Amino acid sequence: VPRSFWHHMSSSLGAQLARLALPQEASGTSKASILFDLARAKSVDLDTIYNIATNGLLELRKLDERFGPFEASLFSSTSKSLDRDTLVPEETEKIDHSIATFLRLLSGYFMLKPAHKVLEYLIRRYLILRYNIGALLECILPFHDTDMFSTIISQIEVPAEKTGRFVLGSFKAGGPAERQRVTLFARLLNAAASSAPLHRHRLIQLCIDSPALTEFVCLMIKRAFEAETLSKTAVSFYAVLLVSLLDSVPSVSNDLTVILLPYLLHGIKADSSPDLQGATYMIISKLASRIPMTPDLVTSLMLGICKYTTLHSFPFALQSVVHICQTQVATHKDLPTLLPDKALVYILRQPTFTASLTSLLLQGKYEAGAFMASLLTRIAHLAMHSSPETQNGNADDDHASPDYWKLARDLVTSRDIQTGPYMSLFTRALLNEYQQQQGSSSSAPPSVEARVSALLKHIDQHHPHELSQGIAAVLKD
Questions:
Q1: Tens-place pLDDT, residues 13-25
Q2: Could you give the CA distance from residue 47 to residue 330 in angstroms, rounded to a whole number?
Q3: DSSP string of 67-92, one letter each residue
Q4: Which residues lie closer than 8 Å to 112 by C-beta, 6 or more apart?
Q5: Whole-number Å distance between alpha carbons of 244 and 206
Q6: pLDDT tens-digit profile of 367-408?
Q7: I need a labelling partner for 138 at 20 to 30 A (CA). Which of 251, 388, 406, 475 fits?
Q8: Is the dihedral of CA 372, 375, 381, 384 positive or negative?
Q9: CA–CA gap between residue 455 and residue 393 (Å, rounded)
Q10: In this model, does residue 26 exceed pLDDT 50?
Q11: What 3-state class would DSSP assign to 401?
């Protein structure tokens, strides 16, 4: 008989004897509790916990029918005999997926008593304080400043570095990153133990000390969005935490920017969630005020914001675009290119563009000089190069263009939008574009000449001084 056979038999027998030597509650069950104190928890049997949980699940189902399918899986009567310590990897993976899905849905109801009832069973039967720490944190982290968060996190079993499958399930296992995430657990638990509840400033400091936590927060929001379980509480937590984090660091490192960007670009596209889009706009605006962005990054952000904004989120998207222009103008020598043409086309297609811009400027809270200068300069260019065939299309048609001449006239004649300071720049851009067409092989068609002439008359009527300045600048050029 090969020696390896006896070695295997010895190891297997040793493991079985070790399991038999454990106290009964350590095998497949736990006496940790969020409903009872330690003494009471020891005397409450699993059947009682199960009945409490099924009652809680019934209450949750009245609030959200998506809890229904879990009656036949995680909370089936057969689950009472489950022993997680004896499951094969395939069974473990299936249960982990089901628990993660359930906890993402539960997060939006975490502060309700029925949620605590079902969590009690997951803790007792499925040992989620040991095996599903990542999924549990995704559920409870938005409530870090509550007593219930402290109660739960103080009972989590911190994994050792070698027990890879117990670490944050949101990340790949193995190597130095694995040890970093184990360290993250230890820091998070220590912070919770010394501060009950875990206040925001402590959590921000943890994010500064452990970038893995920042990435974990970003990833948990992305996963909840993809699972259609993202709650307003989670979005608010995400926005406030990251904006505060960007405010708190002395300087925003390249590493932090690299962590955030993929999730910000994802959030921009979340047009089915106005809340997440709005939160993303806030974070991008704060990031823009802290770092000089490369032209490529500005273009990517501008295009994403403008392309995926909705009628509901557009006012906030416009605020973000204005803020990016204002904060990044110093790093862009060519002002007109600060607002890419494609991005401009997307926002000009919005039916509420003029109203939203008017409202934004009348608030008087936002510096908009760079945006207005770029906007008017690009409108002059786009108007001179537009054709009637491509104008007046809808916002879903990538080949359609707004009526730039009408937009220019509305901006020139508006009494609410203070375009005066930018009219000399607009006049100069318009006349330069017209001159370029006149100097080309084919001179401007009569219709364009008529439109330019009509627009100059409007400028003369509403902004005569700026018209003179613009003409003088062209002659000087």
A1: 333 333 433 333 4
A2: 67
A3: GGGGGGTTTSGGGGG--GGG--HHHH
A4: 59, 60, 63
A5: 12
A6: 888 898 889 888 998 888 876 555 554 444 555 678 899 989
A7: 251
A8: negative
A9: 22
A10: no
A11: strand
- How far is residue 41's CA from residue 63's CA, in Å, rounded to a whole number? 28
Distance of alpha carbon 457 from alpha carbon 464, whole angstroms:
9
Amino acid at 284: I
User: 35 near 117, Cβ under 8 Å?
Assistant: yes
Residue 303's closest CA among 368, 389, 238, 398? 398
**266-286 burial string, b = 16+ CB within 10 Å, else e?**
bbbebeebbbbbbbbbbbbbb
Chain CA centroid to CA 176, Å: 27
pLDDT digits (tens, 9 = 90+) for 330-361: 777 666 668 888 999 999 999 999 889 989 98
Average pLDDT over residues 407-431: 85
Q: Is 228 left (phi over 0), alpha (psi -120 to 50) or beta?
A: left
Q: Global pTM?
A: 0.84
